[in-house]
Specification:
alpha/beta, 7-stranded mixed β-sheet, two-stranded parallel sheet, binds pyridoxal-5'-phosphate, Aminotrans_V_dom, transferase, pyridoxal phosphate
Length: 371
């Protein structure tokens, strides 16, 4: 087995794996399962500090992104797509797929979105049904200040859709204080459950926008209204993945037992950045660093593919390159959830030191020692 130090999927704790091996029930007919599902949803709402209802959907994080856009977008709706990273820009595809008019607000990929500049933009044009914001844009590690951005958008009457799949629990999330209408999470990042589930919270405003559409939602699986009154009616729109949800529940209980989980991420992330930069490596970002992932430029004369391959074959550790416009340029170390542990990160850095030395990179020290 490889050690997976990637920005998702992440390592899964033993009690989460054990929970997944529990006896299965028929989730459609077993009244106890409806209780279990609703309690798990409520636990998530509490952990991200919202009064809004959570839904757990069978399908990885991307399903949540698509479901939010499918459920909100009607033909011709203008949607503001905040783009300072690959996932940020990617929202335009979901918006246009469902007939919306995606308006990109593109800024420097090495810097977080500046709320003051966004405000200047909104003063000129704020006629948007909703806006999409990525909390941590994982391919570049960019963390956006959703605490400032979302209240600003709401003050212009714009609904806020936030992809915090790779940020939540490594970055502070106070969904109600931040005025997030649709918050999206996935099981396989800092939650550290296996891939397979999306978590979505829905505000009253978001729900009303979905209910007051003139045209029907052009999807079944990605229609968030199909879960309406599931508890009262004891009826799920499709068969719930029981074992995945048992695992998720155990993972959320682990998080609840650790009130300082965000601080653990922030500390480790700061130490990783300091270790890499003190040894002469260059971080991709100028600012907006995230607690869950560190992204650095491929140092000369090494190639990204060789670094990843040697880490894998010689040290049994998977770290990640990147994709889309970032492909080949950067290396990403994930330190989220169960991977955000001192020993694991130190092992990864020690391996990286050897790999970079083998590839002829001149370093100013050993990252594992400085860490
Ligand atoms: C991982 C991730 C997702 C979900 O992608 P999946 O492949 O479905 O897990 C969505 N947004 C961001 C920012 C992510 O990092």
């Amino acid at each position: 087995m490889y050690e997976i130090m990637t920005p998702g999927p992440t390592a899964v704790a033993e009690n989460v794996r054990m929970a997944r091996s529990r006896e299965c029930t028929n989730p459609d007919l077993d009244p106890q399962f409806y209780e279990f599902y609703r309690d798990t949803c409520r636990m998530f709402s509490e952990l991200v500090r919202t009064e809004n209802e959570t839904l757990i959907l069978g399908g990885e994080g991307i399903l949540g992104l698509e479901a939010a856009c499918a459920s909100l977008t009607e033909a011709g709706d203008r949607v503001l797509v905040l783009d300072n990273g690959v996932f940020g820009k990617g929202f335009q595809d979901f918006v246009s797929m469902y007939g919306g008019d995606a308006v990109l607000y593109t800024t420097d990929y090495r810097k977080p979105i500046d709320p003051a500049a966004l405000q200047t933009y909104l003063e000129q044009d704020s006629d948007f049904k909703y806006a999409t914001v990525v909390h941590c844009d994982t391919p570049s590690g960019m963390c956006n200040d959703v605490a400032a951005i979302c209240p600003l958008l709401k003050s212009y009457g714009i609904l806020t859709v936030v992809d915090s799949v790779s940020a939540m629990f490594g970055e502070q999330m106070d969904a109600d204080d931040f005025q997030i209408d649709v918050l999206l999470g996935g099981s396989q990042k800092a939650i550290s459950a296996p891939p397979g589930l999306t978590l979505v919270t829905l505000s009253q405003d978001a729900r009303s926008a979905m209910k007051n559409r003139k045209t029907p939602i052009a999807s079944f699986y990605a229609n968030l209204l199909t879960f309406e009154d599931y508890y009262e009616n004891q009826w799920f729109p499709y068969t719930m993945p029981v074992s995945d949800i048992c695992g998720l529940r155990a993972a959320l209980e682990n998080i609840r037992r650790e009130p300082d989980i965000v601080a653990r991420h922030q500390k480790i992330a700061a130490r990783v950045r300091r270790a890499l930069t003190s040894c002469g490596l260059k971080l991709y970002q100028e600012d907006g660093f995230c607690g869950t992932v560190t992204v650095f430029e491929v140092p000369k004369p090494a190639q990204a593919a060789d670094i990843l391959d040697k880490m894998k074959t010689e040290h049994n550790i998977l770290i990640a390159g990147s994709f889309d416009v970032m492909a080949g340029q950067v290396i990403r170390i994930g330190h989220m959830g169960e991977n955000c542990r001192e020993e694991k990160v130190r092992r990864t850095l020690a391996a990286l030191d050897r790999v970079l030395a083998d590839l002829g990179v001149l370093m100013k020290g050993r990252t594992a020692e400085i860490f």
